[in-house]
Amino acid sequence: MDTITRFASFALILGLIAGLCGCDQFISLLSTDTEEDIFRTPIEFDIGLSLHLTGATTASTGLAMQRGFNLARDEINEMNSPVRINFIVEDDGGTAEGAVAAVERLAKAGVTAVLGMALSSQVRQAFPVAESNQVVSISPISAAAGLSGLGEYTFRTALAVNIKNTAGVKATHAQLGYERAAVIYNDAEFYSISSREYLTASLADLGINVVTTQTYQTGETDLTAQLTEIARLDPDVLFIPTRSSETVDIMVQGRQLGVASQYILSSMGIEEIEMAGDAAEGAITFGSWSSESDNPLNRAFVENYRSTYGVDPEPWAAQSYATLFILFRAIVDTVLPDPTATDAASIRDTLAMTKDIDTNLGRFSFDPDGEAVYEPVVLVVKDGAMTLFDGSRMPE
User: Which tens digits make up the pLDDT trace of 352-379?
Assistant: First the structure.
């Protein structure tokens, strides 16, 4: 079999199993016993990871992301494919400055792409650095609106708040019928400001009365004044469009101060639910992924993650896992017709054309600005775990 035929055969297989990488039954399809097979010498790709591995939120962000990336890499490298993935990892410390420095170091190391940069404030400053170095950059979990439009090399696989908040407000209002809402957000943090903007726009579109909007700033832990005012006004729902790491104090102090409203958050992870305890029960959150999503790729991911790490996957892990497979598919689709097309610009061009591929997040596409397009999910905390939201299944 000549080289062109071998590449064409592999391309056909990839087309048939689009997005199904990682499932054992499909890995076997990529195997061959032919001595001369070109896939025995895969093309090596160095991928950079900018992760928050030290600091207060390591477990809920950086560690979960690293696990998701590692699981995807290991599954990819077990295949007999034309591509092998290697990681170069930089700790960005969870700060914008740290992410900029991490991306600069990774660009100098000659990576094809940089993945990570969890926070929207990190993305806003680090994406332009990747762009200037012509390195593909993909953030799996940042969600402030509009950030992928910062450059041609920049992409995100999490749903931006203009998509998930709008969909979440419509879904929860349709089920719960609330009329009076309150909002509390961090007016000194980029993601929280963006999230609040699209949340309140959605509430206004539905004619919902926002009885008060309370603010706080990063590092402020005593929210007595803000939450006491919210309790006094007794709204039907309290929207908390802020980072996951800041939601625990709000939920716990709110219940202690008599806030009886339905909590609705724009972001929440398993760690926050555990830390908030009973205060998190019944809280609703808008998300990009659910462990209950019933597709073969997601079931395989959840099973493999649990088997590998002994814990349930966080959304951050699921989104990171999907991100590497999305990039891997673009790389393979680029090098199959031309094994010399290993440069970032060629990978970027193919990545930008990603449309309707199957992933553990669902059917996935990029829009013209490199923003993710797929179905958002709404989740509710029930018995200490996140489950898909359905008004009929709300905790009592």
Answer: 999 999 999 999 999 999 999 999 999 9
Q: Do domains 3-159+292-375 and 162-287 have the same CATH topology?
A: yes
How far apart are alpha carbons 62 and 68 in whole angstroms?
10
Quote the CA–CA distance of 112 and 98 in Å, as a whole number: 20
* Rounded Cα–Cα distance for residues 116 and 386 (Å): 24
Would you tell me how many other CB atoms lie within 10 Å of the CB of residue 48?
26
Which pTM was predicted? 0.88
Q: Does domain 162-287 have CATH number 3.90.1310.10?
A: no
- pLDDT tens sequence across 206-255: 999 999 999 999 889 999 999 999 999 999 999 999 987 789 999 999 99
Q: Quick: pLDDT tens for 140-193.
A: 999 999 898 889 999 999 999 999 999 999 999 999 999 999 999 999 999 999
Across 123-178, the runs of DSSP E, i.e. the strands, are 136-139, 154-156
Alpha carbons 396 and 387: distance in angstroms, whole number: 15
Angle, nearest 10°, between helix axes 344-352 and 315-335? 110
Strand pairing report for 377-382 and 385-388: antiparallel
| CATH architecture type of domain 3-159+292-375 | 3-Layer(aba) Sandwich (3.40)
Map residue 90 onto helix, strand or coil: strand
